[in-house]
Amino acid sequence: MVDETVARTSREVFTHFIEAINAHDIDAMVALMASDHVFIDSLGHRVEGAAAMQAGWRGYFGMCPDYRITVRTAIDETGTVLAVGDAGGTIDGTAWRIPGAWEATVHDGAIAEWRVFADNKPVYDALARRKS
């Protein structure tokens, strides 16, 4: 669990958020989100509010119980962290791994916006098989 009492840099907030994602620790994730947090996926869909994202992450981890992000490189400047790496997991027994990039905007020690850039075709393919 992350200690929210310590002032953190944008990079530290980002790193703790990735750690919480990889641990599937939704409470820690929500603690790192601004109350008006915005999530934007690679298709431009927006989800607003930490409470809505709590439910969203719970559903995502239920669908992909071993979801994990690996960051290879991250840079930060003036409250924004940009990172590249890959993400992957398993959906209904089908393993997938894709290159990805993430942009986190951090204000007052919390993630105000989390944006994902990725080609999610392997995820969509796994979900399409689920509907068949």
Protein architecture, described:
- This protein has 132 residues and is an alpha+beta fold.
- The chain has one domain (10-131): Nuclear Transport Factor 2, Chain: A, CATH 3.10.450.
- It has four helices and six strands.
- It has a six-stranded mixed β-sheet with strand order 2-1-6-5-4-3, with helices on both faces.
- A hairpin with a 2-residue loop joins strand 4 (80-91) and strand 5.
- The longest helix is centred in the first third of the chain and has 14 residues, at 10-23.
- The radius of gyration is 14 Å and the shape is globular.
Q: Features of this protein?
A:
disordered N terminus; 34% helix; 6 strands; alpha+beta; globular; 42% strand; Nuclear Transport Factor 2, Chain: A; 6-stranded mixed sheet; 132 residues; 4 helices
Strand-residue proportion: 35-45%
Poorly predicted regions: 1-6
First-residue to last-residue Cα separation: 39 Å
Order of helices and strands: HHEEHEEEEH
Class from helix and strand fractions: alpha+beta
Overall mean pLDDT stands at 90
Q: Which strand order do you get reading across the main beta sheet?
A: 2-1-6-5-4-3
CATH class: Alpha Beta
Record field, number of beta strands: 6
Instruction: Give the tally of structural domains.
Output: 1
Tally of DSSP helical segments? 4
The CATH topology turns out to be Nuclear Transport Factor 2, Chain: A
The CATH architecture is Roll
The helical percent reads 25-40%
What is this entry, summarized?
By secondary structure, the chain is α+β, with helices and mostly antiparallel strands. It has helices at residues 10-23, 26-31, 50-63, 121-131, and strands at residues 33-40, 46-48, 68-77, 80-91, 94-107, 110-118.
